[in-house]
């Protein structure tokens, strides 16, 4: 296998390993830190730019390997139909080897390109999921805080209502006391009047009033 197909195979293996890491059941904090690093690191951005250029060359290799596979397949079919008879086992083996290599190179480059698209889409999906989970956590905290504030406000409202009720009860007691005091004063005045009238009628004069 030539050096560029060897590099393509190594890149395919790296993509498979990266995909396994992406879909692994990692804790949320670790996954969030990892994806923040991948999306914000300048070094990762340079590596991603280099990979984009590499995939352009791999796409060219894929087209070339696809053309070779079609050409070799056509030659094999032509040889089987008798247009170019297969004379011995070595010739047949040579056709089979060429067909195998052409198919191998096509599948190698094709899967490498396909997995690159899958990785890119998976990365953005997981990144959106992390962002949604972060927003949900913030919203949950804000809701809990608002609920706590509402609970505190409700307790304060209950306390204010209780104080108003106690104040109204005190006002009622004060009014009752004033009414009772007024009635006692009226009764004392009436008692003095009756006492004076009694003294006049009995001929006794008294300057002393009994409270």
Describe this structure in words.
It is a single chain. The chain is an all-alpha fold. The chain has helices at 3-23, 28-40, 42-80, 89-202. Residues 205-211 have low confidence and may be disordered. The protein is rod-shaped, with a radius of gyration of 50 Å. The longest helix has 114 residues, at 89-202. Helix 1 (3-23) runs parallel beside helix 4 and helix 2 (28-40) crosses helix 4. It has one domain (3-158).
Helix-strand sequence: HHHH
* Alpha-carbon distance between the two ends: 128 Å
- How many strands? 0
Radius of gyration: 50 Å
- How much strand content do the residues show? under 5%
Could you say how many structural domains there are in total? 1
Category from helices, strands and their pairing: mainly alpha
**Helical amount:** over 70%
Name the poorly predicted regions.
Answer: 205-211
Largest sheet: none
Overall pLDDT level: 78
Count the DSSP helices. Answer: 4
Tell the overall outline: rod-shaped
Short description:
The protein has 211 residues and is mainly alpha-helical. It contains 4 helices and no strands. It comes from Artomyces pyxidatus.
Strands, helices and their partners?
Elements: H1 3-23, H2 28-40, H3 42-80, H4 89-202
Fill in the keyword field for this structure.
211 residues, mainly alpha, 0% strand, Endoplasmic reticulum protein
